[in-house]
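Internal ticket #5521
Category: modeling
Description: The requester needs a full-assembly model to guide mutagenesis choices. All entity lines are attached below as received. Residue total reported by intake: 930.
Assigned to: D.W.
Attached entities:
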Amino acid sequence: MKDYQLLKTLCAIPATTGDEQQLNEFILEYVLDHRDDWDSQPAIFAGDGFQDSIVLAFGNPRIAIFAHLDSVGYCAAYGNRLIKIGGPKAEDGAILVGQDSRGPIECILRKREEVDEKDKDGKKKDIFEYEFNREIDRGTPLTYKPDWREDTVSIQCCYMDNRFGVWNALELCSNLKDAAIVFTTYEEHLGGTAQFIGRFLYKSFGCRTALISDVTLTSEGIKHGDGVAISMRDKGIPRQRFLRSIIQHATQAGIQFQLEVEDAGGSDGTQLQLSSYPWDWCFIGPPEENYHSPDEKIYKSDIEATQDLY
Amino acid sequence: MKDYQLLKTLCAIPATTGDEQQLNEFILEYVLDHRDDWDSQPAIFAGDGFQDSIVLAFGNPRIAIFAHLDSVGYCAAYGNRLIKIGGPKAEDGAILVGQDSRGPIECILRKREEVDEKDKDGKKKDIFEYEFNREIDRGTPLTYKPDWREDTVSIQCCYMDNRFGVWNALELCSNLKDAAIVFTTYEEHLGGTAQFIGRFLYKSFGCRTALISDVTLTSEGIKHGDGVAISMRDKGIPRQRFLRSIIQHATQAGIQFQLEVEDAGGSDGTQLQLSSYPWDWCFIGPPEENYHSPDEKIYKSDIEATQDLY
Amino acid sequence: MKDYQLLKTLCAIPATTGDEQQLNEFILEYVLDHRDDWDSQPAIFAGDGFQDSIVLAFGNPRIAIFAHLDSVGYCAAYGNRLIKIGGPKAEDGAILVGQDSRGPIECILRKREEVDEKDKDGKKKDIFEYEFNREIDRGTPLTYKPDWREDTVSIQCCYMDNRFGVWNALELCSNLKDAAIVFTTYEEHLGGTAQFIGRFLYKSFGCRTALISDVTLTSEGIKHGDGVAISMRDKGIPRQRFLRSIIQHATQAGIQFQLEVEDAGGSDGTQLQLSSYPWDWCFIGPPEENYHSPDEKIYKSDIEATQDLY
């Protein structure tokens, strides 16, 4: 049976948007430790001028696989208030962990609705607070406490989004040829990294084709166990010519896949499209339920279909 | 009398955002067929690295005319649901056409309101569905069935936005000097092409001045028959120095124009402004009524004023 | 006592987004008049290709200080309607000034709420109109009539946002080394300048570190008199590594500062992040009350703390 130990480890490393240093260091170390087992040695681009993102260039990259490092979470504001990082979806009572100048933190998320006083029509909004035995330093990022669950059918934990995508990209490294692996930041909150990495790859290698290695949502049309999801569109619309070539490939290869058509959700693909470089992109990954919560669940068979397609 | 046969043909070619291949091919063929009649021969940039956009560079371009190829429409999702491409405004009952793996499609648009279950305040949202004798392949784009109407005063059809702008740009080709014609994609949905074309023109020719060849909306201040509209602002605000030079030119040339001041609506001008290159831009075009519907109507006199100004 | 004459003058120069020519010229003149008193002479980049923005490069810039020139305001539309430029917050009755083809304007702002007919749920929206003895030319920008108020504790006027930031940047010029001062436009409305200036600095000097010289808002956690605000986040999230280095510096230098954590508000920092270049950025400035109104108030002690930190 497939061993998901590496994925479990990845899910437990805190890396909210803007603060991905620890995960960046873990991956760089992993690459240095494992590259001798890979078919070819990638050029490694990281550090100065790359913020906390990493590019691994195998050969002469014609295609790039983007996997974002950052996750949603919460950030301590004034008093016991929390502000969202990205779009976390945990319920009241979730356990959050972190670290500030006074030591480690394990606190409880409190969530309630309140009328927005600034809204003319009295619209409601969510209020997030923490319950802890002391005040937390302003700006401290908090993440879900990891709770890995696995059975024969599925795996479940916080931050499958997007440690699955990162894991999938790392697994690909063993026999990659003329492709780049890209680990980005800022995907969950506003974007920003994909643009400059896109520029770097375009100018360095003429590369302008991207696969987005991430997880999507189960929905009316996308089900657990029905295979890897190929997104025909989310908020953004990828080039349909490029999309059709991928669908054709998946069909011919006999891979179990499902076509996703949504009007919301974005990815580094959207950021690449809005950049000053002519990128083609396509989102490919397994569906999960309970997205952005501590309980993100993915089916193992969908993971296998995803690995078949990449 | 002016012959609008070419515009009529353009309005009937489906080209929703992301899927402009057919219109791209039509225009390339048109250019190859007609360029011998033009005063000067443009350099043609298309294909690899340009997605479905096209750049025609006449001489050494000091100014670029941007006309977007793509149109709004609908995209088949799950069951008989449709998702919007851009912001279509058709009423319930409109006829939509398309093509999928099982053949040609002519179906009826169904539109209704429903309470948004995800909204805390029970806000209403529009639901779009199709009525057809079979299910349509996921992701299939659907467009309005063209119905060209013309009298002495006006022309009316779907997709005047922006086949008028495309037609206007093609008409200019016969005696253009030191200017570029740019056919873009993604204008109706999220943007993305103007940015990389803007980069291309800036780096290739030092060109950073754009006119946006498109149609605008009739409104409280913009009327059919009052001439070409020069937009002083929409969602974006063009450089007022540049705008004033255009207004001055139009005044001195005795062209019938009307000044538009709106707080909404965007164009490739907005995308150029948000890019990493210092573009000046101005939106110039005739007003239409029933925008983004199957019944977009433009006055012929406003078309003539537009052609006078360009 | 500190003399704020220059800041008072800056607050009185109209420069709504897109129309910053007059302020651009004032600053260029100021630079030419005063640079002989500065420790080193900057290279001046302005004019062609820079729109109304200005870059002063001292030595070999490792860091850039961004101060936006433009302010919020209103723009004459049809009839006596006004459209917002950026997000002005004046109350009904505020005095607006401007200039059009028929001469100088001093009119009264009328503000009322109205049900938005286009909204399905009958949401209310603000309507802005002017009261004046004649119609105003379409597109004419209107700004608050300046009313400078100063006592021992505070200064108050319209457009502290961002003439304070501009003034702060100009004050720094006297002994700046290996840094750039950047005056941008479009910050209050959609953005656009920071992107191309960011590209220019990155390509010319390899510079990709920015301080945003601006004012922020008093809030639950940010108080008048508590020192300069260092923003840990607003709508955007700056690189936390970079932020921590600034906080450490401020702490070691014994500067009075307060940490801001908000979920809204943006700046040229956001624009730099979304560009194709890997900028680090941090927002640093004093808090003000009554933001975007004619009565923006800042404490002098917070100004001094700001100048200490820069």
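Resolution: model delivered.
Comment from assignee: Helices of chain A lie at 5-11, 21-34, 160-172, 193-205, 240-252, 268-274, 300-309.
Ticket closed.
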